[in-house]
């Protein structure tokens, strides 16, 4: 079937995929209708046994000069859980849930699952799709926000895989918009905060002694600043911080009781000399007893499932910090395979199939609905330098 996507190969550069030029016209940033052949579910990947841990960490940190010391420290988190990250099992379950939802809605789109950093790799998924004749793919990355780590890196890996497999002239990969403010993604957090606050107040803790901490992955400040299109001028925190703040506001506006909240960061790595987004969740927790806070609601706003960052950095470390400071804590659920989330992901695919007009697309914040197609230089990592990325406009 003819599609508006095309493959552009410039002489001397790897084949890279770009969306239709139509995507660049007009402020809508909405592509034209596209008959996709399949869905590429793009995950982060994680180890599934002790022997996988170090090779996995080498994949993740490849070419980034993360010191061995830090690798060992992270390996320790995985070892604590038998060398198994739950993330691959989550994605198996998400794939099955998407397939069930697609079947229930009579949508004939196979789901190919591949990871950036562990088997099954993106290479395998794309090769399998191509072998089945499914060459026009729409990707869902298991990450809701704009930034190098949460969007661009997936797109760079798509481009790398298309080049390395030699499929750059055959397969096109578009990507659904960053879905941070899609109701399907946000619902779990709204319900989670409501349930946690109800539990705490039910136990006699007054609402004014509760603090909601929205936690997301810290990133280098330089990455945050460059997240999203530069013309939006979203300040030092860029689109990454702005999107999280906007979603947190939506979650709190949906609550019956007024409760104070903060956006906090977790899982910082990299050298201490390099600025990353702050405050760290643990540092924030330490200040709270002095403000009369008795309980914290920890909301994993930056994550779609209960993977290692949630299980270790929140459920072990932050929970322990809270206990040490005499605070009760409740960690709210991630979307996982919540039906609202799964239905929402299928809706996001259909948006692209149908080129649903911008004003008909569900988006809970004033920032959204975000763009179908990333602008040149969007979320680029200046430390790593320019790498081609699929699912975007020509640089
Ligand atoms: C924004 C963001 C997300 C959310 C978006 C998304 O979900 O994609 C995310 C997710 C994840 N990060 C994960 C694991 C790791 N991330 C690392 C390193 C880093 N992450 C970063 C950012 C993010 N990471 C950054 C800026 C670095 C520093 C390296 C660099 O300069 O770019 C390292 C290396 C060691 C270390 O440095 O800690 C590991 C092992 C796993 C798998 C968990 C599991 O196995 O269950 C998941 C889902
Ligand atoms: Fe990470």
UniProtKB/TrEMBL annotation:
Keywords: Cytoplasm, Heme biosynthesis, Iron, Lyase, Metal-binding, Porphyrin biosynthesis. This is Coproporphyrin III ferrochelatase. GO terms for molecular function: ferrochelatase activity; metal ion binding. It comes from Serinibacter arcticus. GO terms for cellular component: cytoplasm. The gene is cpfC. The lineage of its organism: Bacteria, Bacillati, Actinomycetota, Actinomycetes, Micrococcales. It catalyses: Fe-coproporphyrin III + 2 H(+) = coproporphyrin III + Fe(2+). Its EC number is 4.99.1.9. InterPro entries: Ferrochelatase (IPR001015), Ferrochelatase_AS (IPR019772), Ferrochelatase_C (IPR033644), Ferrochelatase_N (IPR033659). Its main location: cytoplasm. Fe(2+) binds at residues 217, 309. Fe-coproporphyrin III binds at residues 85, 154. Belongs to the ferrochelatase family. Pathway: Porphyrin-containing compound metabolism; protoheme biosynthesis.
């Amino acid at each position: 079937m003819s599609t508006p996507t095309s493959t552009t190969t410039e002489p001397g550069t790897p084949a890279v995929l770009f969306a239709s030029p139509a995507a660049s016209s007009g402020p809508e940033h909405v592509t034209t209708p596209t008959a996709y052949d399949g869905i590429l579910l793009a995950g982060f990947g994680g180890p599934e046994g002790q022997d996988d841990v170090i090779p996995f960490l080498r994949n993740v940190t490849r070419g980034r000069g993360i010191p061995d010391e830090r690798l060992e420290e992270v390996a320790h988190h995985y070892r604590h859980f038998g060398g198994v990250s739950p993330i691959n099992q989550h994605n198996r379950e998400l794939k099955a849930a998407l397939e069930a939802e697609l079947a229930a809605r009579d949508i004939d789109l196979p789901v190919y699952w591949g990871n950036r950093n562990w088997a099954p790799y993106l290479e395998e998924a794309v090769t399998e799709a191509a072998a089945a004749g499914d060459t026009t793919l729409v990707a869902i990355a298991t990450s809701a926000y704009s930034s190098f780590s949460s969007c661009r890196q997936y797109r760079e890996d798509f481009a790398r895989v298309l080049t390395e497999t030699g499929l750059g002239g055959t397969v096109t990969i578009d990507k659904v918009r960053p879905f941070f403010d899609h109701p399907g993604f946000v619902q779990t957090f709204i319900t989670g905060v409501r349930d946690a606050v109800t539990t705490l107040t039910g136990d006699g803790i007054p609402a004014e002694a509760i603090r909601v901490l929205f936690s997301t992955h810290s990133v280098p400040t330089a990455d945050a600043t460059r997240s999203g299109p530069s013309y939006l001028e979203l300040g030092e925190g860029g689109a990454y911080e702005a999107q999280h703040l906007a979603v947190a506001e939506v979650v709190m506006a949906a609550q019956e009781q007024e409760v104070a909240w903060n956006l906090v960061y977790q899982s910082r790595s990299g050298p201490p000399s390099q600025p990353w987004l702050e405050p760290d969740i643990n540092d924030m927790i330490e200040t709270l007893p002095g403000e009369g806070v008795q309980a914290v609601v920890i909301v994993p706003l930056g994550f779609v499932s209960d993977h290692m960052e949630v299980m270790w950095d929140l459920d072990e470390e932050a929970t322990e910090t809270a206990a040490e400071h005499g605070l009760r804590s409740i960690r709210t659920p991630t979307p996982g395979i919540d039906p609202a989330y799964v239905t929402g992901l299928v809706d996001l695919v259909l948006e692209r199939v149908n080129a649903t007009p911008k004003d008909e697309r569900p988006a809970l914040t004033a920032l959204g609905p975000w763009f179908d197609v990333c602008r040149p230089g969007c979320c680029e990592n200046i430390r790593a330098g320019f790498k081609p990325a699929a699912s975007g406009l020509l640089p």
